[in-house]
C-alpha cells in the first residue's frame, strides 16, 4: 500500500503506535493559597472540549536523539507546569466552576509514526492530524474510549501532550488543553514558554537562559461564581474542515479590490486589515453556498460572530500573558457589501474599548442568559483569529516548526485564521457542511485570492 493510500485509508489503519504513557507533575508544589483557581463566567460558558494544537519539526541531524528529546521534554514540562499550575490540576467533568490545583499532573504520551514527516505533510488530509493527539482529544471528541485507563476518575485532566516520532527523526508535538482554562492566546504562550524551558534543560544548550520571572504567566484571581451551565455546544451536525491559504500578495490584491468597491459606493474604507477583508470574503462565499444548497435547513445565516481578544482593548489593559478565556464575541450583522460589513465590524470592535476593566466586562456578561447566547451563536458563522500569536516561533531547540496548526473538526459553520508558514499570509480552517464546503472550495472569487 502506498503512503498516499495509507493516509486515505486512515480510518481503517492507524499510522501511529503509542510506546509510552506517563504523568508529569510540577517540579515544585503549588503554594496553599493558590490551590483553588476560580473559573470566570467566560470560562464556564466555554464548550466542554479541548483545544488541539500541533507543531511539526524536521530532523536536521544536528539535534538530540528521539530518546534524549523525550527526556528533556518531560523535565522541561515539569518545570513549566510550576508556573502554569492550574494546567496540572483537575476540574469537574460537568459545569466546572473552579480548578483544583492539586499538582496531580499532565498526561505525557509518546508515539511512533509509520511515515516520514515530509510524506505525511505532502499527502495528508486535515482529519489525519487527529492521530497525533492523546485519546482523540480533539474538539468535540473529548471523551476517552471506555477501555482506556480511568485517568479522569477524579475529574478532567486539563492538559495532555503527545510526542510523535516520525521514521525520519522528525517530531510532532501535539497538545490538547481544556478550553475551560484557556483560549488561543493562552495555549500559544504556554507552548512558547515550554519551548524556552526545553532549550534551557537541553544538554546541548547548557548556557541558555531560563525564561525571565518577570515574564511569568498571569492568572487573574476572581471571586467564585456558579452559572450552573454545562457550556456552549459545538453542535453535532456532520461537517468537514478544509484548510485554505491566502498569501500576503493575494490579500493585498483583495484589500485593493475592497477599497475600490467602497470608494465607488461613496463609503470609502481606509486601511482595511487582513482579518477584516478575509472575514468578509469567507462570509460572502459561505452565505452564497448556503443559499445555493438551501433545502429546508434550519440554519439561516444572519451574520458573523467574531471572537476578539480583550487583553489589550479594555481601558485598564490586562497583561499580554494573562491566562484564561479572555475574549468577547461581537456580532456583525450587515449588508453583504464590503463597506457595510467592515464598517459594522469596526464599530463593534470600538465598543469593547469603552469597557473600563475585566470586572466590568465579566459583570456585563453575567447579565446575559447563556442559553440566549447559544441560540444566537447557532444562527451565525463563528470566526476567530490566532494571527500574530507567533506559533511559528515555538522552538524547542530543534529549530522552528515547518507547520503549526489545529486539528479536529471545528464547530460547524466556523472559520479559524492563523499565520501561514514564513508569515506569508494567513491559513484559514473552514468548517462547513459537506455540500456547502463543496461549493466554497470551487468558488472562483475566493480561489482567486488563494
Structure keywords:
disordered N terminus, alpha+beta, Chloramphenicol Acetyltransferase
Characterization of the model:
There is one protein chain. This protein is α+β, with helices and mostly antiparallel strands and 450 residues long. The protein folds into 2 domains: 3-219, Chloramphenicol acetyltransferase-like domain (Chloramphenicol Acetyltransferase); 240-447, Chloramphenicol Acetyltransferase (2-Layer Sandwich), CATH 3.30.559. It contains 12 helices and 17 strands. It has a 6-stranded mixed β-sheet with strand order 1-6-7-8-3-15, with helices on one face. Strand 7 and strand 8 form a beta hairpin. Helix 3 (66-83) packs across helix 5, helix 7 crosses helix 8 and helix 7 crosses helix 11. The radius of gyration is 22 Å and the shape is globular. The chain starts with a helix and ends with a helix. GO terms for molecular function: acyltransferase activity. It holds the Pfam family Transferase. Keywords: Acyltransferase, Transferase.
